[in-house]
Design brief:
The chain is α/β, with parallel strands linked by helices. The protein is built from 11 helices and 13 strands. The protein folds into 2 domains: about 120 residues, Rossmann fold, CATH 3.40.50.20; about 140 residues, 3-Layer(aba) Sandwich (Cytidine Deaminase, domain 2). The strands form 3 sheets. The protein has a 6-stranded mixed β-sheet, sandwiched between helices. Strands 3-2-1-4-5 form a 5-stranded parallel β-sheet, sandwiched between helices. The chain is globular, with a radius of gyration of 22 Å. The chain starts with a strand and ends in a 6-residue tail after the last strand.
Length: about 300
Amino acid sequence: MIALLAGTGALPGLLAKRLQEKGEVPLICEMAGFPPEVPDDLPRLRFRIETLGTCLATLRRMGVTRLCLAGAVRRPTVDPTAIDAATAPLVPRLQAAMAKGDDGTLRGIMAILEEEGFAILAAQDIASDLLPPAGILTRAAPGPEHRRDAPLAERQLAAMGRADLGQTCVLRAGVVVAQEDDAGTDALLARLAQPSRDADRSGDPVSWLMDTASDMLGDAADWLSNVTAEGPASGGLLYKGPKPGQDRRADLPVIGPATARGAIHAGLAGIVIEAGGVMVLELPEVLHLLDDAGLFLWVRAAGEGA
């Protein structure tokens, strides 16, 4: 029997559908605070990180031998008073893993799962078509400036990964204008799509003066706190890829129709993803959206053109 350790987002539901098409009914293992987008009629086991040991024992009793980690889960806040007896022996390892950031937490949990006798499947083992073929998949193609920026974006993403930050950045004309934070890729694109404050100002000189003063104070505060505002992204590219040395059985980055719409609204020229390292949900719809808007999707081999 297979269980999906399911987080948020569309991936768990897609994998559940593929498994059902193959004649398997997956058990949805849901951690408190991270409800997955899956059909209500699927069997479900809910747990807290404080009861992980009991959850694993229950899975074994139910005959689960394979696990797939799918969907987004952030490091949860642990309530020490809620830790049960079966989980207490795991606490030192969980604490050590969580101290190493999101990637370290994931690696630590995967090690525990394997030691408990579970085989870990990657999402792409269940749905191999989630990893698109290398190449330019849209009618539009990246220009010379985008081909120059792609290796820069790859290096930027590697630096972000080593710091256990996000898996996405936006470049334009050789400059990193935005990078992903804990809010995710969709939030990054939404920020870039916001109209500039200048465009919203009226012709009223008093309003203009007040807005200008506000901007000056804001710029001073940014300088004092060493915060750099995100720059213009129009005509740039979104680059997404896995972290260096990432275990690709879990937490591979994902794009989908929402990413395509966000890139369009942000005025980007296209999207670049690392071949074999980024999953694409609903690829036909993604290509349709990008083709209609004249954006490119380049599935680029790591190191290409560097």
